Amino acid sequence: MLSALIQKLESLEPLSDDAQSRLRKLPVRVVNFAPREDLVRESEPRGDVRILIEGVASRYKALDGGHQAILGFLLPGDIDETDAFADRLDHGIAAVTASKVAQVPRLMFDQLLLDIPEIGRAFRRMARLEESIRRIWLANMGQRVADKQAAHLLCELRVRFAAVGMGGVDWFTNPLTQEHLANVLGISAVHMNRVMQHLRELGLIKIEGHTLRFPAPAKMDRYADFDGGYLNSAAHERPRERQ
Amino acid sequence: MLSALIQKLESLEPLSDDAQSRLRKLPVRVVNFAPREDLVRESEPRGDVRILIEGVASRYKALDGGHQAILGFLLPGDIDETDAFADRLDHGIAAVTASKVAQVPRLMFDQLLLDIPEIGRAFRRMARLEESIRRIWLANMGQRVADKQAAHLLCELRVRFAAVGMGGVDWFTNPLTQEHLANVLGISAVHMNRVMQHLRELGLIKIEGHTLRFPAPAKMDRYADFDGGYLNSAAHERPRERQ
DNA sequence: GCCAAAACTTAACTTATGATAGTGATTCGG
DNA sequence: CCGAATCACTATCATAAGTTAAGTTTTGGC
Known about the structure:
alpha+beta; homodimer
């Protein structure tokens, strides 16, 4: 049930058989969500630990005018709150596609982290990775032109989707609407469409139904000034840590 | 020497006398930096733990064209790497004003976290706070008009500067140039100037030398859609945590 | 397989923001 | 105290992006 999570953790930090089996034995309750449904409402007191095991979701924050700003996307294996310390989220999470969520009793989860330090370590890795992603986003949004921002976002999505089996080196299955993408970048949906047209004319992307292809991935990366290192290098550098 | 840090930690989590004295007894080496000097260069292997004890600094990330995007600002009491787990930063830190930095040997610092769990807890709180700040930034940058983005930023700075004695409820001492502010918001310096003019005409801010005043703080908050709760509520809600 | 809703696309027009270039006011090192 | 930077500010012009309002295609429920 938690194989997406285990796969993700293992890409950051190899897990012992013991750790893996303990993870697998966690008692999970699987809950289904329809598109647009809230997985977690903003400022809802925290309950169980939630792990996305199927589907795609978005973190959002409500703004004044009833609008909501999308802060990022969650893919299978992502967890509602990486460090699991907060009592409540300061933002909501909504399903983008039909999703399955595994809910694990908080106490069980906490006990597991105490029992098996390597799992705690892997989770901290994950936290650092997300932090890194957010930093890159901030830098990216500082970029002037929306075309490059969008290109960068698409490159990131390509790599992240590939990591969960929803894509490869030059494509991914895209469940996001242009409105989702526009919202995340802080531009209008109309302009998002213009940008997609432009990237298409440049031969950088190609849309086939729900498959987004990158005819020239290297060219695209250069255009977007994208260096995917931050998304997977964690597995290789492997810093020493306090046990 | 570390009073700024202790003050900040204590605003998040009251510290026992023992914890405080252990913090005070940390052997620190104080290093001075001139404006524009790098406190930490990008991708420099980590050395000691660095704590800003005086002055203001900026986190930045180098972009393609030699430009650099400012990701955020550090104030006294802020630490180079909140969780202290990474081997190297994926970004640089530069002094904005003349700064003093306390350097603490990594091993001493780690030992302290192991010895006194409440200090570890306080640092995790700090990490959560910074995460929260970054999230608000992302939401804010999604906003369409630069005027509101800028207003929001100024409100945040007001609260953060006040927390370290560099401001009050309706003013702060501003060491940042309009270029710094523009860079952070991802707009041109010229436009930043226009925005400042506009906010001035609206009577929302008033510049007196290096003092930035807010003649009508409540009105400003409303204009910016700013709710400072996220910057200081941590001290009040106080969630239970694993020891 | 049909219909309604959602998603995508295009066009015309307006506005916000960028680029460049210059001026005067401050700051700061020597 | 002076000169050189740095910084704040203005003006002009070019362009990216927002808004509104269509039309078209795709999707999904029944």
